[in-house]
Amino acid sequence: LKGIFVALATPFAAQENIAYDKLRKNLIAYEEIPFAGYLVSGSNGEAPALSPAERVELVKQVRKNVDKNKIIIGGATNESTKTTCETCEAMGNVGTDAVLLMCPFYFKKHMTEEAIIQHFTVVADRSPVPVVIYNNVGVTGIDIGIRVLSKLALHPNIAGVKDGDVRKIAGTILETKKKGVEFEVLASTASMLLPSMQSGSCGGIVGLAGALGPQVCELYQLTEQKYKEAINLQLRITKVDTLLLLAGLGVPGLKAAMAMLGLYGGPCRKPLIEPSAADIENFKLVLVEDGFLRL
């Protein structure tokens, strides 16, 4: 899992059907970028708005249209352990190399450490491909602690975790190393890539790479060689990433940025709404100021 994985946006046509032709177009462009692989049907892919069949079909289509050496990670989060297992199996059958799973959170008061460990253990036992845990506190409201992660890391089919807390990243790496376990830790945002790499992460699964793929991959490469240049590029990327978060632009904003940069962004599925013209113009100015876009 070393390197940068782009969290793919799911392209929709005007009637909100998945535009597989636009997906293929984007993948042709992405294949020219040194990504380690692709996350399909994650948060940036609007996974909650997709049917189970659509999520599996997206994995199948991405697998068919990218280099066989690129790693495909399928977003297989569901609220029940049973359904999660079924999704993992279905995605495994169409070519995913791993699955990314958030903790079930609808009944969050009942998601004790015991329940969390049981869920991921049962899924990992049944999944035909390795499991990567996604500790997405902002969505789930549940922070999977280092103690729980270090226990789950002992499972032979749990490969790693995606996390946005640098202290947690460092602590998880330390604890799993103490136990002699090979457990990959990945950054969850482009804005935290450099500090995460400094803390020992092996790369990142990031949405902003869908718009600024070459720059995010360059940052990853610089972290191994040129620290000063890495800091400068990290600051520029952070400005864009932060604007997406603070302005509340999210996935619609990311898709707008993709369109500005020559990719297909397109509409989101409702209830997500398009950014205002003012927000798009402000975002465009930031991309220009930081040298990511030429008018």
From TrEMBL:
CDD domains in alphabetical order: DHDPS-like
Which SMART domains does the UniProt record give?
DHDPS
Lyase among keywords? yes
Gene3D superfamilies documented for this protein: Aldolase class I (3.20.20.70)
Q: An example Gene Ontology cellular component term from the record?
A: mitochondrion
| Top-level taxon of the source organism | Eukaryota
User: Quaternary arrangement and interactors, per the entry?
Assistant: Homotetramer.
The protein in question is named 4-hydroxy-2-oxoglutarate aldolase, mitochondrial
In its UniProt entry, the species of origin is given as: Clastoptera arizonana (Arizona spittle bug)
